């Protein structure tokens, strides 16, 4: 061990520009290191010890990064909180994580103040500025030494899953007890799987909110490899291209919704930017329609990588070459991961047959904090599942069908909405689409599509008919939506995750069984 890890790199080269805030402000590694050291000294005086946790309700940028870097060198768990949540939902995470300090940015003061009721007033901090009822962070850090704290030990992030059922759960791993830089260097193994190299000149574009596991993992790990982090505040297609050119971005983490919106830009806009620096543009989080992915590879070249994974651990990887040979795949198991596809009785299914996807990551364990029953329910021996359905081909490449919870059972047949969504999404007048089952007294469920029309497309029966007609010869009639409704804007989280339950709920009101 010995050359990677933010704290090591910052000492060796304090002038390195480690991060760029959304407003363009550049931050030297030495300054970030000093801020993170002062915060550790201050929190230790507050009584924090290894194994304790802190929560942050922070927008993308360096203020949140400092919390992450402090926790990871002091042996604490850091939980970044989703800033779309309401006060009571925030309070639940602050209480459940047993946070010993809670940091809130003034932008999120309203719900953050409601959420702070779960923690003692002297443990609430405003970063930066002032929030009534919170202490300014300066009270923790002013006058504390810039020097490295003694007894440094690796901490970890504890993300809360956005669970589709019940309360979110913290995914908690045992602390390694390693030196923080050695722990960070081990983390870089994830990016090394994609062929990503350490050192300069490399820059990583942070496109989605840092409260998402993958965003923290890929951004944090890129930083530990010596890459400059360039933060976006709100995602915008042309701004993405502008930042890629301006900062010579080499790698990023994206979702298929980003691709669809980038491809919707006028050709002259797309051609205006120099994207020759791009080397590892990685995507995940949702199935990507084959034509969308193909169009991105044609535009950006062989720098578009895909993976499938979960906060809990384990996963697959598809290089551009893998994908061209196996269109639609999400890749093969990582060398440190195993895949198992089983039927409802837990027995393995034959190649090419859809089943529930179970994974394991060698040598890595986790628990859902405070919920041994949920931890146990997600496991099959030492494999776990997040409830996705998929199948393997003869070469061991994984293809996703859908989430088990989203599967439609119509007339006894299993229908996967993602397959239908992928076909509808390709239509030029469709900006976004969601497909789900609604009650049908004869068939059990019928297929409903909700479409967000592309700019300039007129919603109504004519467009619905045109969309259905486009499925002719591409999708079996039994999979066609019975009806199409239109919506001004699809309810999505910024990481691209569709809030399907919001769309589905009105159709199931008053029914005993809401799928």
UniProtKB/TrEMBL annotation:
Q: Which organism is it from?
A: Nonomuraea muscovyensis
Q: Where in this chain does the record put each AMP-binding enzyme C-terminal domain?
A: 419-497
Entry's EC annotation: 6.2.1.3
Extract the Gene3D superfamilies matched here: 3.30.300.30, N-terminal domain of ligase-like
Q: What is this protein called?
A: Long-chain acyl-CoA synthetase
The entry sums up its family as follows: Belongs to the ATP-dependent AMP-binding enzyme family.
Sorted keywords for this record are: Ligase
Q: Where is this region: Disordered?
A: 151-174
The cross-references to InterPro entries, in alphabetical order and at most eight, read: AMP-bd_C, AMP-bd_C_sf, AMP-binding_CS, AMP-dep_synth/lig_dom, ANL_N_sf
Q: Which domain of life is it from?
A: Bacteria
Q: Ranges for the AMP-dependent synthetase/ligase domain?
A: 7-364
Lineage of the organism: Bacteria, Bacillati, Actinomycetota, Actinomycetes, Streptosporangiales
Q: Mention one GO molecular function.
A: long-chain fatty acid-CoA ligase activity
The record's section on PROSITE patterns has: AMP_BINDING (PS00455)
